[in-house]
Backbone:
């Protein structure tokens, strides 16, 4: 059989394109954060992870420009060889201090942090235990390791206890959970997870990609929930609140040092470009200097969540600026997405396997820079479309 036969036979995306309901890879002609232009159409953006609105902040832009002028556009090598700048090391110290851990290590993307950290730590005979709603990068890291992956029902402490109890007592164990789950917008019950990890002699890693800049005064979920000392590794990304590209892992120095010398995604990938490094520095400065941004994005989230619920929409378990509008069927989700797009509102349709069967949804997310007028328009259009397509 021809290896490419499946490529020629797969038609789902092209069928969506032909129908006008294809929602992915849409090119943004212009973006100002809260509004974007796609094919000369202006839309309010409620599908971004730019939680603090810092991608267009003058200090962040200027820092990236100045670093690029000084160092050029690329380091042209991996961190392992010629790609480490003094700025990378300075940023690692700054990040470790910020999330209150001993040391940190910077990768080129958040995805690489998870696959590199997990695959380097989990060897034959070890076990990695994940929440069923964990991000795909965590799952991929587990698959790339030589250990055994176990999963527990979403945020079920009873099931986590059961899974941990079935693992051989002498085996190495790493529990990995999202701090904030990227589809549901709910917060992991970290204090309870910490207690179970300690009871079963397991280590704990928290993916805080959607928490940095949002919870704990911006420092993330473990600090927000008062259990940072019980979390062994904290992962964060720069492509959300920190308005750049890259990611980091933070924890005890011997553990991070081991990851640094064993994570293939770090050793065999080019390092973060200077402009991206400088942008993270500037974003951290703004987060500290302008804490009102963190308060604002959470205020908007609470307001919009309550407003959606009042209109009759199902917002699931959301507790953060990620607010899903749960619809159920895939066709109904695409229909609602298209109607909102035509009405000038940008959302993200999410279908299986990214969510469980019959749980398709519109993922909405909010920025500190959204205005009250924009939020009023979003709610007006959601009400119109919700009634039009029979959601409310």
Residues:
């Amino acid at each position: 059989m021809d290896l490419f036969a499946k490529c020629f036979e797969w038609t789902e995306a092209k069928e969506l394109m032909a129908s006008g309901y294809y929602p992915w890879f849409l090119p943004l002609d212009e973006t100002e954060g809260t509004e974007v232009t796609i094919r000369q159409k202006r839309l309010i953006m409620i599908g971004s992870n730019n939680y603090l609105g810092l991608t267009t902040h003058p200090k962040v832009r200027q820092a990236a420009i100045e670093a690029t002028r000084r160092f050029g556009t690329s380091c042209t090598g991996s961190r392992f060889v010629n790609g480490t700048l003094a700025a990378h090391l300075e940023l690692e110290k700054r990040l470790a201090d910020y999330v209150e851990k001993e040391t940190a290590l910077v990768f080129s993307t958040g995805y690489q942090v998870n696959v590199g950290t997990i695959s380097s730590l989990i060897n034959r005979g070890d076990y990695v235990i994940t929440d069923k709603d964990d991000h795909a990068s965590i799952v991929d890291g587990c698959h790339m390791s030589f250990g055994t992956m176990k999963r527990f029902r979403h945020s079920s402490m009873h099931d986590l206890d059961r899974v941990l109890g079935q693992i051989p007592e002498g085996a190495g164990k790493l529990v990995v959970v999202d701090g904030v789950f990227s589809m549901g917008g709910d917060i992991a019950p970290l204090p309870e997870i910490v207690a179970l990890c300690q009871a079963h002699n397991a280590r704990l890693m928290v993916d805080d990609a959607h928490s940095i800049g949002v919870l704990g005064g911006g420092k993330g979920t473990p600090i927000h929930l008062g259990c940072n000392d019980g979390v062994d590794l904290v992962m964060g990304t720069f492509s959300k609140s920190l308005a750049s590209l890259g990611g980091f892992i933070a924890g005890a120095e011997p553990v991070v040092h081991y990851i640094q010398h064993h994570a293939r995604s770090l050793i065999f990938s080019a390092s973060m470009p200077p402009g991206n490094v400088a942008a993270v520095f500037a974003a951290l400065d703004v987060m500290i200097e302008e804490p009102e941004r963190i308060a604002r994005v959470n205020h908007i989230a609470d307001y919009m969540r309550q407003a959606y619920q009042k209109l009759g929409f199902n917002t699931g378990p959301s507790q953060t600026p990620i607010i899903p509008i749960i619809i159920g069927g895939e066709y109904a989700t695409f229909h609602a997405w298209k109607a909102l797009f035509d009405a000038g509102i940008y959302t993200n349709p999410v279908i299986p396997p990214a969510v469980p069967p019959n749980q398709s949804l519109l993922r909405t997310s909010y920025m500190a820079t959204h205005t009250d007028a924009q939020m009023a328009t979003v709610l007006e259009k959601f009400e119109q479309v919700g009634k039009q397509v029979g959601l409310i």
